[in-house]
Fold this sequence. Notes:
The chain is α+β, with helices and mostly antiparallel strands. Helix content is 15%, strand content 30%. A five-stranded antiparallel sheet has the order 3-6-13-9-10.
Amino acid sequence: MVEIHAFRCGDWLVVWMGCRGLNALETLMERRKFLIGAGSTAIGASAIIGSGAFSRIESQRHVSIAVAEDSEAYLGLEPLDTLNSQNYVALDDNGHLYVQIDGEGDQQDNGGDGPEGVGVNSDSSTWFDGMFDICNNGKAEATVRIDVAGLQFHSSSEDGIEPDDDYGRPIVDVFYYDDEGNEVSILTDSEDESWDYGEDLTLDVGECETMNIRTNTKGIDATMDDEPLVEGDATVVADAPGAGEVND
């Protein structure tokens, strides 16, 4: 005689012979319930964790930015130990580099005597080598220009260009010497789109370049001795786009 057993399992009516089939079926059903439950729990957790919506967050963080003199800043502007630099270049009370070429001299207060003259020659070109260094003290390659838009030039010149110069050279130039000894100007004028004279100075990290100054006074009216050849504020502009890029 065969004993037939029937039990209800949820919505299922289970019929089997003996007990082994029941045990296997019960185990399978419980396993399915566990897997389904684990899946739904994972989906629920994902929905909670993945939601990034918020209306407001206030987080306090510490910020400290140091200010340095020009000689020690990220863009270094350093007077030199040359006679030209000692006479005409120094740091002011705020640590800012300035250039003053006149009869006063000894701008670095080294106790030396100033020049006997009071200015550059008229109708001439005058070179002042070894005036100051521009250094890249940052963390990425930089290009540097000097913007002369803020300078006032002698009234007998036209926008700071030599009146009698067919090449359109500025009456005051800041330049460096390349490897072949050529003068490379780094001047620009942000207010004059036609200015196409200087070039970018490219500096690697830790690299410095010595700047020199040349004045060109051909065609300048030297009888107007109460008027400086140039006066005002020049702007040193350095760009280092690589400092804001993500490192690979």
